[in-house]
Write a structure and sequence with these properties.
The chain is mainly alpha-helical and about 500 residues long. The protein has 23 helices and 5 strands. It is globular and about 65 Å long.
């Protein structure tokens, strides 16, 4: 059993010292003074503005990228169903879990929600239901029913995320090419059925845990689809971005470009940029985390989704520790579990999710008592949950770096032989070579991981200060509220650092 080395103690001590200094600074100066932050539309950059406008307003580039993604998707399905069962030799498992799922989270920071624009599930579902490559489909192609009110939230996506995590880590589909292909086809069926039944793209907005994870993390990204000139949007009466045109679909997630403040539901699909008669939609650059600090509105369901992200990302790390399997087997003996250990795993997963939720809820109760009757508990819970998002995001990336940089060697061989015909499992020598020769040096990986953890805590602190300032103008109350929130943020950071310190079992 090969294991990735853990983060050296010197790096952990450096991050912890910085966390202590930041905590002391915040308690000394808890207030946050809002100030304007510079943003720039790529459409206004000299020398490339016209090219950017042309790219975002034309559908053929997006269509070409979608065709490429669908090609890889079909390769994954065929490889999983008919290829070798050896996971490290099969394109289904290598492309899905080692390359795509690990790389996607990292890519969100640089590209926002751009993945959703070329998502193969949505592309295939759209072509099957709308029967168009990119133009607006007939109204009769879907039943166009409204999503029931009780489903119009992120709760369905959260439960899907929990279910996918259970399948990934409990059932073990990450090392099962056949199961990976079946899961990919199941998501395609769900996407297609939703598009055929509900109006617009209900699956993308309410049900897709992948898209909602991207949407949440994209709130921290320095990239977003926004108006080039906000005054043009303010004076627009026709709202093609929302209603669409004769040829272009309306916004699939019911957004109006001139009023959009956060990336949560934007899929970067291009409908707004292609339908706008003024070519007034393009990519905009802004400082990291600006949206989460200033613009994100608190919502009860979003708060729980962020809690789910935080707990499940840490849970991924726990399950790859050497002691995890021993714990699960010991529990299985106590409860007389089956050989697959699914009940024992489910109990462990439930407890791992419950602990951070209970800790956060208890600390928010303390903050609620500090504030008094001026703010409802539910609003306080929702408002401060966004502080956890940077911790989940940066740990998610730090954890994924190990998989992406240490386990993706040999990718070219899988691409050229996706079914793994005539191959054997990795030998001990091959496994050792991959283990000892990551794509980047270990020192670079450790530096990136430590930097990510510190950046996540710093951004969480900035968001916390902004949120607390909105809750109370009294500096003493701000300082008192900061104490339980900082305790939670510091505890999560410390725990995630501890996880990164431990040797991690290689997945493939």
């Amino acid at each position: 059993m090969m294991m990735h080395p853990g983060l050296p103690a010197a790096w952990v001590e450096t991050v912890l010292l910085a966390v202590l200094l930041l905590t002391a600074w915040v308690l000394r100066t808890p207030g946050y003074h809002a100030h304007s932050t510079p943003t720039i539309s790529l459409a206004n950059l000299p020398g490339m503005g016209s090219m950017v406008r042309a790219i975002v307003s034309q559908p053929w580039i997006q269509l070409a990228l979608r065709l490429i993604m669908v090609g890889f998707f079909i390769m994954i399905i065929v490889s999983g169903l008919f290829g070798t069962p050896v996971p490290e030799r099969n394109a289904a498992t290598v492309l899905t879990w080692t390359l795509w799922w690990t790389g996607l989270i990292i890519a969100v920071y640089f590209t926002g929600s751009a993945w959703c624009a070329i998502c193969p599930w949505d592309a295939l579902a759209t072509w099957l239901v709308r029967r168009r490559w990119w133009k607006r489909g007939n109204a009769s192609s879907s039943m166009n029913l409204r999503v029931p009110k009780w489903m119009r939230s992120i709760w369905p996506a959260l439960w899907m995320f929990v279910g996918l995590t259970w399948l990934e880590l409990g059932v073990g589909i990450t090392t099962n090419p056949y199961a990976t292909a079946l899961l990919a086809m199941l998501i395609l069926v769900l996407t297609t059925a939703s598009l055929a039944i509900f109006e617009r793209k209900a699956f993308c907005r309410y049900f897709c845990s992948i898209g909602r994870t991207i949407g949440m993390y994209a709130e921290l990204s320095p990239v977003a689809v926004r108006p080039v000139d906000y005054d043009i949007c303010a004076n627009c009466k026709t709202l093609e971005c929302y209603h669409g045109t004769d040829e272009i679909e309306p916004c699939p997630t019911h957004l109006v470009m001139g009023r959009i403040k956060q990336n949560t539901y934007c899929t970067s699909c291009g409908a707004c940029s292609q339908s706008c008669p003024y070519q007034n939609v393009a990519w905009r650059l802004r400082p990291t985390g600006t949206e989460a600090i200033r613009d994100v509105r608190p919502h009860w369901d979003a708060a729980w989704f962020i809690l789910g992200l935080l707990s499940l990302t840490s849970f991924h790390g726990i399950t790859m520790m050497p002691f995890w399997e021993q714990w699960v087997r010991s529990l299985a003996v106590v409860i007389n579990d089956s050989g697959q250990l699914l009940t024992s795993f489910s109990i462990g997963m439930f407890v791992s999710m419950l602990v951070p939720v209970a800790l956060y809820a208890g600390l928010i109760q303390i903050a609620y008592r500090i504030v008094g009757n001026s703010t409802e508990y539910k609003r306080l819970f929702s408002s401060l949950a966004i502080t956890m998002l940077p911790l989940a995001f940066t740990y998610h990336i730090a954890h994924n770096l190990n998989h992406l940089l240490r386990e993706s060697r040999g990718l070219s061989g899988v691409i050229f032989n996706p079914l793994g015909q005539g191959t054997l499992p990795l030998s001990v020598a091959e496994t050792h070579f991959r283990h000892m020769n990551p794509l980047l040096s270990e020192n670079v990986i450790f530096t990136l991981q430590a930097g990510l953890m510190l950046a996540g805590f710093w951004l969480a602190v900035r968001i916390m200060r902004s949120r607390i300032t909105r809750l109370s103008a009294d500096s003493l109350i701000q300082r008192m509220i900061s104490i339980p929130v900082l305790f939670f943020l510091s505890s999560v950071t410390l725990f995630n650092l501890w996880l990164l310190m431990q040797p991690m079992i290689m997945r493939m």
